[in-house]
Design a protein that fits this description.
By secondary structure, this protein is α/β, with parallel strands linked by helices. It has a domain of 86 residues: Rossmann fold. Helix content is 42%, strand content 16%. It has five helices and five strands, in the order ββαβαβαβαα. Strands 3-4-5 form a three-stranded parallel sheet, covered by helices on one side. The protein has a two-stranded antiparallel ribbon with strand order 1-2. It is globular, with a radius of gyration of 16 Å.
């Protein structure tokens, strides 16, 4: 299921189903993948993507697939390494750097942020990034609309 959350400024945040590390049957995960791919290909108003992944299990195969879809659609991406509270500060910073290094090895410059809903780590930075992406003067990519 795709969940839409209408914001007071008229924009929407869209939550796509979990995937990858989720403990679900392969058939169900494949269905999620098809649903996400359909959304990426058919949503002309899609402006940017936040990929939320467990900091303890980053960059799984489906994460790379999402990144590839974003790159193909010329969409800005933020990788949100969730559950950063599971690590001490130094270990969390090291995990983030490992993800940044892995992205650079394939020539991708994608913002990576540690996040903890429990401790609200990274919340202000996430809100700022979303505000920038959803600013009223940001036009929907006309090339994507025409496709």
């Amino acid at each position: 299921m795709i969940n839409y959350f209408r914001l007071s400024n008229g924009n929407s945040l869209v939550d796509l189903p979990g995937y990858g590390y989720a403990k679900a049957p392969i058939k169900e995960r494949d269905a999620w993948g098809r649903l996400v791919e359909f959304y990426f290909n058919e949503s002309p108003a899609l402006r940017a993507v936040v990929i939320v992944m467990d900091i303890r299990h980053p960059l799984q195969d489906m994460d790379w697939q999402m990144i590839e879809w974003c790159e193909a659609g010329n969409l800005p991406v933020l990788l949100l390494l969730n559950k950063a509270d599971k690590f001490k500060r130094g270990a969390a910073a090291s995990a983030r750097l490992q993800v940044v290094k892995a992205l650079r090895e394939v020539d991708l410059e994608i913002e990576v942020m540690n996040f903890s809903a429990l401790r609200k780590t990274g919340l202000d930075e996430l809100q700022l990034q979303l505000s920038n992406w959803l600013a009223p003067d940001k036009d929907v990519d006309q090339e994507r609309v025409a496709d």
